[in-house]
Amino acid sequence: MNGVATPTLDPLLGETLRLIEHTREMIALIEVGVDDVEIDDLSRLEVVRECTRLTARLTAVLSWLLSQKAVAAGEFGLGDERAFRPLFGIGDERVDPAAMPGGDPAHSRCDALSALVVESANLFSRVARLDRLREERRHDPDRA
């Protein structure tokens, strides 16, 4: 098999879905607001921007993981390029949506959001590493 094994994908998929749920909860809190926390418009905009970047990163990871599950399930043939192209450039950190210029998430005014951004960056790095290994095995089957 040239894809990633399902036992490797399932925990990553669970982690991705958990982070997406936490991001959704974060966005809901931003929309409702928190009574005991004053947040100015600029800070709120910064938090919304980080949530958008976080959502883009997690969506890219989720797309890649689901495509690899489809490969493992035989839904894509080995000759089907859709099975092997890195969706959204997941194997290339230069296209990580959250790596775009515009501020360091570690300096965000929201600690919970900063933690989500860091967790998602770690997840993205692990999935990107899997993508690189998958691509190397695809081009050099003796490494499998």
Number of strands: 0
Gyration radius (Cα, Å) is 17 Å
Indicate the percent of residues in helices.
55-70%
Q: Which stretches are low in confidence, meaning pLDDT under 50 for 5 or more residues running?
A: none
The residue-averaged pLDDT reads 75
Would you tell me the structural class of the helices and strands?
A: mainly alpha
Largest sheet: none
* Distinct helical segment count: 3
Molecular shape: elongated
Secondary-structure element order, as H and E? HHH
Percent range for β-strand residues: under 5%
Oligomer: single chain
Span from first to last CA? 9 Å
List keywords for this structure.
144 residues, 3 helices, mainly alpha, 0% strand, single chain
Can you lay out the helices and strands and say which pair or pack?
Layout: H1 6-32, H2 41-72, H3 111-139
Helix pairs in contact: 1-2, 1-3, 2-3
Structure, described:
- This protein is an all-alpha fold.
- It is 61% helix and 0% strand.
- The protein has helices at 6-32, 41-72, 111-139.
- The chain is elongated.
- 22% of the residues are buried.
- The model has no long low-confidence stretch (mean pLDDT 75).
